[in-house]
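Hey team,

Filing this mostly as a record. A colleague (T.K.) asked me to run one chain through the structure pipeline before their review meeting, and I want the input and output archived in the tracker in case anyone asks later how it was produced. No errors, nothing strange. Just documentation.

Input sequence:
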Amino acid sequence: MKFNLSKWIYFGLVFSAAALRVLAAALDASSPAAPGERSVLAAEAEDRGAPAQEAQGDSEQAARVPAPAKSEALKAACAWREHIRRDDEIEPRAPEGYMRKYWPNGMPRSEEPLVSGRFHGIGHYTFANGAVYGDIPWRHGQKHGVFTLYREDGSKEQTLSYRDGVPYGLDEWFAPDGRRTKAWVYLDEKHFVPPEQCEG
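Output structure:
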């Protein structure tokens, strides 16, 4: 059989172009959107390869597995927000530096304290217009504690709760007028129940 070099080069180029298109689509899907299209936390989470909490809680497709009523695990999750104390949970350690990011207009986007190469302490996040998005507690590189996130107009958007990097306890979402539109009590990132199960 006669070897046709030009044919092999052609097929190689076609295959390479297809592979590049798939790679470009994947990168585009994971890149942060422009300001106003998605929250700072979602963009920051994607930068670190972690899912954003608001995307989980806001999805009706999230895996909802009811926990046994009045179980010890459920009781602990229900009481988490009331009993957690930031100063007790996150030991004070002087930052060795900060991870700082900026919006395209030069305004600060995030400032996260670093201890031993990991986020530890309170990260400060802002919108491109300078409005505060939120202050997120970190412990040894993982979100840990309760924090509130705001919209650019200053209205409260979410109150989220994490334990060792995993959603835990009561999470709430709010409309711009302050009404609570959704709430879940997380036992972990896949198991959550309505807050009514905490009552009684």
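Quick notes for T.K.: Confidence is low (pLDDT under 50) at residues 22-40, 42-63. Helices lie at 5-30, 40-47, 53-57, 72-83, 86-89.
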